[in-house]
Amino acid sequence: MNRKQLEIHLSQVVQPFKQPKIELEQYQTPPRVAANLLHIAWLKGDIQNKNVVDLCAGTGILGLGAALLGGEVVLVEKDQEAYDILLENKSKIDQKTQSVLNDVLTWQADMRFDTAILNPPFGIQQNKTSDMDFVKKAGQLAEKVYSIHDGSDRNQEGLPKLFNKCGLEIQETYLEEFPLSSSYPWHKLKYKIHNVLVVQASSL
Length: 204
Ligand code: SAH
Known about the structure:
Elements: H1 3-13, H2 31-43, E1 51-55, H3 61-68, E2 72-77, H4 80-90, E3 97-101, E4 113-118, H5 131-141, E5 142-150, H6 153-165, E6 168-181, E7 191-203
Parallel strand pairs: 1-2, 1-4, 2-3, 4-5
Antiparallel strand pairs: 5-7, 6-7
Helix pairs in contact: 1-2, 2-3
The protein binds S-adenosyl-L-homocysteine.
């Protein structure tokens, strides 16, 4: 399956959050952004026949995409409503995956993974947790990490050091446009384009 086919397939099978929860920062990765990230990871040999974990899986777009590219995937999500949609989405693809309803930060995995993929909450809702808490967990679980972050200049500058603190070294980054639809009442515009930074990192 090439990049474009993956994007189309994901846009057909992955139903979005029904009532996204602000406090959990439930924003689904657009199929184009998901397909780009996964295709790059696949080209680098980090998906096919690899043990892959999708942390904060939401409706499952990243993990299910990884399964479509030949990964052995475990998806972890803590919100029951998101998880129910994930299960529905997962039933629409042929590949076998495992899913876990649990808090990523306290989840005890019984194995180590080759690759972690994640679009975690960024911590912009003044949660106590930030994306780095999830990156730290990803670094503990896997050799390679592909993650999505706020793309502001300030954040971009700070990320290499923050990743180092999590035992990871950033190998590559690129910017993506992440259109946020007005799922929330406080969004005045129908769509807002947000810049996100996609990071690929390896264990130190
Ligand atoms: N990764 C998905 C969802 C992104 S939204 C995608 O790319 O489309 C962030 C997701 O993280 C939400 O589904 C939210 O419910 C989940 N989440 C937030 N905190 C979590 C935690 N501590 N453990 C597991 N999932 C969490």
